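Notes from the 1:1 (GR / supervisor)

We went over the backlog. Supervisor wanted to see one worked example end to end before approving the batch request, so GR pasted a single chain during the call. The sequence is below; no edits were made to it. Supervisor asked that the structure be written out right there so they could see what the output format looks like.
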Amino acid sequence: MRTVNGTQTKEAAGTVGEFVENVFFPDCNRRLSTHSRRNYKNQWRMYLQPYISGLRLRDVRPHDIQNAFDGLDKDKGEVLSHDTFTLVKVCASAIFALALRLGHVASNPVIGTSIRGMGHTKHRENGAFSLDEIIKMTMYFEGQTLATVGICAFLGLRGPEIEALEPSDDEGENMHVHRHTKTGNGVRIPIIAPLRKCLAGWKGKINLRSEAAAIKEGCGKLGIRWRGMYAFRRGLGTTLHGLGVPAKVAALILRNSEEVCRRHYIKLDEAKEKTEAMGKLERVFESASASQKADGQRPQ
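Structure output shown during the call:
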């Protein structure tokens, strides 16, 4: 009765599903970016809804949320990563935090729950697409998908930045990155000739999810190992480094710190780099030795 007396709102007596659809999602639409709204909807509809949607909002307790996490781990723990479980927990906490602020619940039931040991921790390699692979893609894809490949490969934009772009941001010599982005507002990145060719079929705003699926399928047909959409951004950093562009200059294009670019965006073939570096040392040494012999210099 203390719970009932402490939560006398109409929404408190409704289901969690009703609160999410009628209150939480509209609140997200007012406050959050498209990317964040989509993430919350995905976590709810794919993972949380089957377990807690029918519960009365004010009756939900930590053990109900824990049972949902345990059930999800039992059903899909081998498929979902631990990072996904973290996102699911964040979504659940956001739902009940809003309910708490509006007076529909007496406490946030997600507090005290645990996802330790849930999901796998095997992460996909943070690889980078090579220049040869980018060339193959630009020769294979067409239309909006080709434009997406070009924007990803030659501008190195983040996901929200890509989806915020519009054809009007194409200023001829530069692409203007400025709408609804977390960083880089007002930044202009040069448009090079290969990108200009890719943009010929650009129709409008890019749906990154559908285009990523098309690019992944195309990579399979081209024999290119799929490394995720962020491999385009890492590929740009790696290619620039291979061309001799200093990391601090690459950082200007990728709009991040030099340290982050070195650590995360420049992906080296370690064996190849070691061999080439030692080869350079060998050639310099032999050249210097030959020069001294020619001069008749001999240690005393």
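Supervisor's comment: The chain has three domains: 2-101, 131-268, 273-300.
Batch request approved.
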